[in-house]
Structures are given as C-alpha cells and as structure tokens.
Amino acid sequence: MKLFLKGERCYTSKCAIEKRNLPPGQHGKARKAKMLGYGLQLREKQKVKRTYGVLENQFRRYFEAADRQRGITGETLLQLLERRLDNAVYRLGFASSFLVNGKKVDIPSYQLRQGDVVSIRASSEKNPAILHAFEEVKGRGVPEWLSVDTAAGTGRVVSLPTREQINLPVQEQLIVELYSK
Description:
The structure is a single chain. It is globular and about 55 Å long. The chain contains seven helices and five strands. It has a five-stranded antiparallel beta sheet, with helices on one face. Helices cover 39% and strands 9% of the residues. Helix 2 (38-52) packs across helix 7 and helix 4 crosses helix 7. By secondary structure, the protein is α+β, with helices and mostly antiparallel strands. The chain has two domains: 38-83 and 168-181, Ribosomal protein S4/S9, N-terminal domain (Ribosomal Protein S4 Delta 41, Chain A, domain 1), CATH 1.10.1050.10; 85-160, RNA-binding S4 domain (Structural Genomics Hypothetical 15.5 Kd Protein In mrcA-pckA Intergenic Region, Chain A).
C-alpha cells in the first residue's frame, strides 16, 4: 500500500507502487497469502506507526491516552498522532527550525492545541530548503484543520482534526481490537 514515505516521488507516476504493485523478489507474482484476523490488525498498526514515525512504546502510550479520553478510541488515537508537532510542521511545509507561539520548540511529539501558531525563525526564512518545502506543500495541499500563510511563514491550528479531515487509508478499529486483547 502506498504510504507516501518516499518523499516527492510518491506524488508522481515514478512511484514504485504505481509502477509495480508486487512483493519484492522473483516469487512476488506467485505469492498470494491471505491475511486474516491478527495479521490484518498488525498490518494496520504498523501502517499508522510508520506513517507518523513513532516507535512501539510511544504508540502504545498514545493508544492508552486515547483509550482514557471520551469518544471513539480509534478516531481519538488518529487525532493525537495528527496533532504532533512534527506532523503539523510536515503538513505545513516548514523545515526543522520553527517557533510555536513565539517560543522555540524542538520536541517532535509536542501536542499542538487549537489556536497555536507555528512559524519559521527569522534567520531561516530565506533558506532554500524551506522555500523548496513551501513549493512541495502547494502540490500536496494543506489539511482543513491547518491554515498556512507562506508569505509570512506562519501556520495556525484552526481546529482539532476530525476523522474526515485525516486523509489516511487506515481502519483504526482494527488497531483498537488489537490492543484490546
């Protein structure tokens, strides 16, 4: 499945999944293993973990926090992961040096709240990598729960993300079932 982990190439026709959607190796075409039960649940969990770049213990803590909160556990889990600072910075197209509400924050798992403003430091505004990231984000688009002002180099958390706004092909219910055993 296409997880968009290979950078720009996954948004074009050069993506390996688009060219050849087979398992690697000489027996890739012939192998047709059915996945049932535990395998499907584990595959969904691994997909989410790799998409958001979290380790197993971090993911378990996020699940436990989502389980303690009111609401649907799977949707809450995805909201917590989506609100991570590193994810929001990636979605806004910023690079590695940024400020949250005017203060330097370098913790990737920092949880953004509604109304937080993420901005680029003044010394980094003309950095070619940041300018290139802004160009990339124009092609990808910004989620509805975020707003970006590329001229000022700022982004704002307009609202908390809902499941409809999280564009991730995941069945979060399978993850909940896996951890509920």
